[in-house]
User: What shape does this take?
Amino acid sequence: MLVWLFLANLSPIECPKWLPGTNVILADNVHLTREQEVKNLMRCYCEIVKKQEALCIRDNDREACRERTNRWFQENVAPLITQQAYAPPRRQLRVLSIEP
Assistant: This one.
């Protein structure tokens, strides 16, 4: 019970959408492919979430900080991985130019 009260006081973890392979932050109306989104979230996990967890642990209860990290992962990364695992293959149209 105490952990839940503590988690309510912690600020939520927010991640930017980066242009793949750069440090440029994308606008909210730009959409990434599912693969790019998973990579973006994993980058966020490594660069932002784990750092915030370490900072949180210095000042607060270790279990509450880890619970916040686990909750972020379950809410953001796990659904994308599950969707990708069960998604049927996408059909892609390709334009071919055939010259005689």
Notes: The chain has a mean pLDDT of 82. The chain has four helices and no strands.
